[in-house]
Specification:
Blueprint (H helix, E strand, L loop, with lengths): L8 E7 L8 E7 L8 H11 L3 E8 L9 E7 L4 E2 L3 H13 L7 E6 L2 E9 L12 E6 L6 E2 L4 H10 L5 E6 L3 E6 L2 H6 L4 H4 L6 E7 L4 E8 L6 E2 L4 E2 L9 E4 L3 E2 L1
Parallel strand pairs: 2-3, 4-6, 11-12
Antiparallel strand pairs: 1-2, 1-17, 3-4, 4-5, 6-7, 7-8, 8-16, 9-10, 10-11, 12-13, 13-14, 13-15
Length: about 260
């Protein structure tokens, strides 16, 4: 540890899971103005953790009368900083709410994608005799629009190889990523993608989705150039992650 630097406190949180060692892990690290680190150090720590996301929380001084506490939030994969990460934001909010670090039902995160909001939603459970009531977390994320692209035969062939021959019914794009729609939710669940082919696709990440039960979509997410593999998540209401919807309700993450 460098001389004069305080130790960095952190927690490992499994998002989208009801028990430890499942779901999608994120390292939630705490910084402050007296313990700032440069970007190279942040990336080195994320590389050493070597899990899908390492995020860094720094409290932001709020003006008297501000509605909610606010933290600066940054996300790093083992190889790069990314603009947005759902499960690591969920993990950060869970830590803040469950440890009593904030005295509020809502917290704001200042990020590269703008201000994100997390709200604690208490669950009604008369049978729950635990001292601490259970809760879910609702995340308010920015809408990321999708658009049609006239991909050439070579690109379509590459997508097909990446999906290991699964039937593709539509392909849409965002500024950086590709959204692949398969024929059924069963196809998404059973998909055995070729990750080496995904890394060759003209995108930073690839989302795979299909219509499931009414009001839900099945989704799996793969990252290539940003250093992630597959990120796990629950079926999300109304649409796919930030693509095409404003509000996202996610299940409680649990600490290891």
């Amino acid at each position: 540890m460098a001389a004069g630097k305080k130790r960095v406190k952190y927690l490992i949180v499994d998002a989208f899971a009801e028990s430890a060692f499942k779901g999608n892990p994120a390292a939630v690290c705490f910084l402050d103005d007296d313990n700032e680190r440069d970007d190279s150090w942040l990336q080195s720590l994320a590389t050493e953790f070597n899990i899908s996301e390492t995020c860094f929380l720094t409290p932001v001084t709020t003006v008297s009368g501000d509605a909610f506490p606010r933290f600066r939030l940054r996300w790093f994969t083992p190889v790069a900083e990314v603009d947005l990460c759902g499960h690591a934001t969920l993990a950060s909010a869970h830590v803040l709410f469950s440890t009593g670090l904030i005295d509020s039902e809502t917290v704001e995160f200042a990020t590269r994608s703008g201000i994100l909001t997390a709200t604690k939603q208490l669950k009604d459970d008369d049978d729950d005799e635990e001292e601490s009531p259970t809760f879910s977390i609702e995340l308010d994320f920015p809408v990321v629009p999708t658009f049609q692209v006239n991909y050439g035969d070579d690109d379509l062939s590459l997508f097909s190889k990446a999906m290991n021959g699964a039937t593709i019914v539509d392909v849409k794009a965002t500024e950086k990523d590709i959204l692949v729609v398969l024929s059924s939710w069963e196809s998404v669940v059973e998909l055995q993608p070729r990750l080496d082919e995904i890394s060759k696709c003209p995108c930073e990440g690839m989302m795979v989705t299909a219509a499931a039960s009414p009001g839900f979509k099945e989704r799996r997410n793969y990252e290539g150039s940003s250093g992630q593999r597959e990120t796990e998540g629950s079926a999300e209401r109304q649409s796919n992650h930030c693509y095409g919807r404003l509000r996202l309700s996610l299940n409680l993450a649990k600490n290891k």
